[in-house]
Specification:
Blueprint: H1 3-17, H2 23-30, E1 55-62, H3 68-85, E2 89-97, E3 103-110, H4 113-119, H5 123-132, E4 141-149, E5 177-184, H6 190-207, E6 211-219, E7 225-232, H7 235-242, H8 245-254, E8 261-262, E9 265-266, H9 267-274, E10 276-282
Antiparallel strand pairs: 1-3, 1-4, 2-3, 2-10, 4-6, 5-7, 5-10, 6-7, 8-9
């Protein structure tokens, strides 16, 4: 960005601190700030991780049909306790698949591995762990990941300061459209795949009005597993995304990079078994999902 753009962005930040503009205006004002190192805006009120790195825990569940409501209640207890009480927990999103309502996913963001280890010692996690086994089918899939996009220290990962926003039932409808999807690529081309998907993610966030966030994570011990975590304003916004030139470029560039099979299934079968696409159960629609 030019020095004039940076000066303008800093002016917006000052006006926000003085209470003269709201967070939406702030987002527009800082969108171009520091574009050379960070193409996404810092959301108002968040405490960014100064190191630029986070520890992401991506979890997929299959729940017994008769236990869906109980599972949601238990998940909310753990998620809200984690974000509300743990200093190192940045967010804990709970997603319910639309086509298969008995399938759920978590996207948990911690400052580092130590913060996640602390999470496992908390009362709310222990209470969750003691009950969840009776509600689910089989073992949950857990992937411990690092962020490969975004990686700037200015990135906002927090939902913590926005928890108070879901105090009205109107915003608890879960109207967002969330993609929680691992991709399995040949390890030798993982770096190139990441380069291609980051280009798509950057363009999506910058050019699509309905793309609220597009995070990319890589499994720490299995580098061929790349998680895409995309949040859109609604299904129409995702349909718009699917027609963009940048996703077409990504599809063409990566079509030969995928593994052929995994755990005895074709790669398509395995990906479908662990992908979740649906609504936000928590946090609420107005809880600061957008990075702008």
């Amino acid at each position: 960005a030019s020095s004039d753009e940076d000066t303008q962005a800093l002016t917006w930040l000052l006006l926000f601190d003085m209470g003269l503009v709201g967070s939406k205006c702030l987002g527009r004002g800082v969108k171009t700030f520091g574009r050379g190192v960070h193409t996404r805006a810092v959301r108002a009120g968040a405490s960014p991780n100064k190191s630029g790195s986070v520890y992401a825990v991506m979890v997929s569940w299959k729940v017994k049909q008769q236990c869906i409501d109980e599972f949601i209640e238990l998940s909310l207890m753990d998620a809200q306790g984690s974000v509300g009480k743990e200093e190192g927990c940045r967010r804990f999103d709970v997603i319910q698949d639309k086509k298969n309502p008995d399938q759920f996913a978590y996207c948990e963001i911690y400052d580092n591995e130590d913060a996640f280890e602390h999470h496992k010692t908390t009362d709310h996690f222990k209470a969750f762990k003691s009950k969840v086994g009776d509600l689910v089918v089989g073992e949950e899939k857990v992937s411990l990941c690092k962020n490969v996009y975004p990686t700037s220290p200015e990135t906002c990962w927090n939902t913590k300061n926005d928890v108070k926003a879901d105090n009205d039932d109107y915003f608890k409808k879960g109207s967002l459209h969330v993609i929680h999807a691992p991709k399995y690529v040949k390890p030798e081309v993982a770096d190139q795949f990441i380069k291609e998907i980051v280009a798509d993610a950057e363009a999506s966030c910058e050019q699509e009005p309905g793309c609220l966030r597009f995070d990319v994570f890589q499994n720490i011990t299995d580098p061929g597993e790349i998680y895409l975590y995309e949040v859109y304003a609604n299904e129409d916004a995702f349909a718009y995304h699917m027609g963009t030139p940048h996703i077409k470029t990504w599809i063409e560039a990566t079509k030969d990079m995928y593994q052929e099979s995994r755990e005895g299934k074709t790669i398509e079968e395995y990906q479908n078994s662990v992908t979740r696409i649906g609504r936000n159960v928590w946090p609420a629609d107005n809880a600061g999902w957008s990075v702008y």
